[in-house]
DNA sequence: AAAGCGTGGCG
DNA sequence: TCGCCAAGCTT
């Protein structure tokens, strides 16, 4: 097998590249704060989905010092709906670290950037190249796919050795090409030409040297292990209101999805089909909630909430709890309108939208 | 080192 | 409908 001519790959790639083919508000921006913010938002997230969040964060927090000074709950609220909420928690940690330990300035090297929470190899390389002109290549999903196809390389991409292997390939491909341009070009190329599902091979400028295309293996590459099956879960939310129509909520703290987001009291059960009486029989039923004082007011239709590794059936059970008095620690009694001030999982905001339409709440 | 972490769009 | 996957990181 002949060795791949990586310098040629780099020349063709940068020859194809035009910044305006895929406009993004942060493209060409060299401000480390905005580069970092955009890269965190775009981790495992499509540009179209992240874009409004970027605008919102920049407007709310123009500088890293503004962000560092923000309350946790406010940042989580801004992040609401974007998913992977550890990014928001780490965003704040990193902003505070920059302010407190780095005098308000982002580290200007790949290694320095890696010390920030939420900044891994990809993000450090992106910031180092875009904001500080460091000669480092990014390795993201696009790069894996493009290189695996171009080189016809069946090395699995989701293992330690595989990542190291493709890092060496992209390093070779980068060569002396200015890294900011190369990195932007290869990611745009992956988004516009060498796409996962419907790659534009007939019009691809790299087609004449693409080994996957020559061997008709484009759709088999890159190789990755098969995804495990989804965990099934069933959530029963208790929507408890007092005589004034106030709600009971609390913040999720456990190592699980939606940490630091707010929700109604939750019972997780082995099934979705539970009547109120069966609900109260569960071991999980909270001691502080006297079943005799509750007046059942109906339940929602089931919601199916799909996550990458879980499918969650969710039902909201409405109860009137007129004597709602002393609350357990960490539970909040709030007005209906105050709900909007808390960061909520998507399934809960969807329920609230729907129940507003049906006038249930 | 593998598993866990959200949400939405697309074929 | 369903699985894949999108500018990954942490533990």
UniProtKB/TrEMBL annotation:
Binds 1 [4Fe-4S] cluster. It is an enzyme of class 3 (hydrolase). InterPro entries: A/G_AdeGlyc_MutY (IPR005760), DNA_glycosylase (IPR011257), Endonuclease-III-like_CS2 (IPR004036), HhH-GPD_domain (IPR003265), HhH_base_excis_C (IPR023170), HhH_motif (IPR000445), MIG/MutY (IPR044298), MutY_C (IPR029119). This is Adenine DNA glycosylase. One of its GO terms (molecular function) is adenine/guanine mispair binding. Its EC number is 3.2.2.31. It comes from Neolewinella litorea. GO terms for biological process: base-excision repair; mismatch repair.
